[in-house]
Amino acid sequence: MHSSGRAEILGTAYSDHDLVVFLEGAGITDHEALLEDPQRVEWRGGSAHEFHGA
Q1: For residue 3, what is the enclosing H or E element?
Q2: Is the dihedral of CA 38, 4, 7, 21 positive or negative?
Q3: From the CB of residue 21, how many other CB atoms can be counted at a distance below 10 Å?
Q4: Residue 4: is its pLDDT beyond 80?
Q5: Could you tell me which residues are beta bridge partners of residue 3?
Q6: Rounded Cα–Cα distance for residues 18 and 11 (Å)
Q7: Would you state the pLDDT for residue 54?
Q8: Using one digit for the tens of pLDDT, what is the confidence trace for 9-32?
Q9: Which residue, 13, 19, 41, 53, is most buried by CB atoms nearer than 10 A?
């Protein structure tokens, strides 16, 4: 998450639910639109909504 000009890692998500919990904790409630916006969410290690165990 970028806030006040700096990047902060909120955690590692292993499901869409995990990601929603992180976003809600950061005060973001419009997460459905956010998750589909590639300008706002960077998916790493796979395509959007694909989660692989570590």
Answers
A1: strand 2-3
A2: negative
A3: 15
A4: no
A5: 6
A6: 9
A7: 55
A8: 777 888 888 888 888 888 888 888
A9: 19
Q: How far apart are the first and last CA of the chain?
A: 21
Residue 15 CB partners (closer than 8 Å, separation 6+): 51
- Partners of residue 40 on adjacent β-strands: none
Q: Which long-range contacts (CB under 8 A, 24 or more apart) does 13-22 make?
A: 13/51, 14/51, 14/53, 15/51, 16/49, 16/51
CB atoms within 10 A of CB 31: 17
pLDDT at position 14 is 82
Alpha helices in the chain (DSSP H): 16-25, 31-35
Six token digits for residue 33 = 């639109």
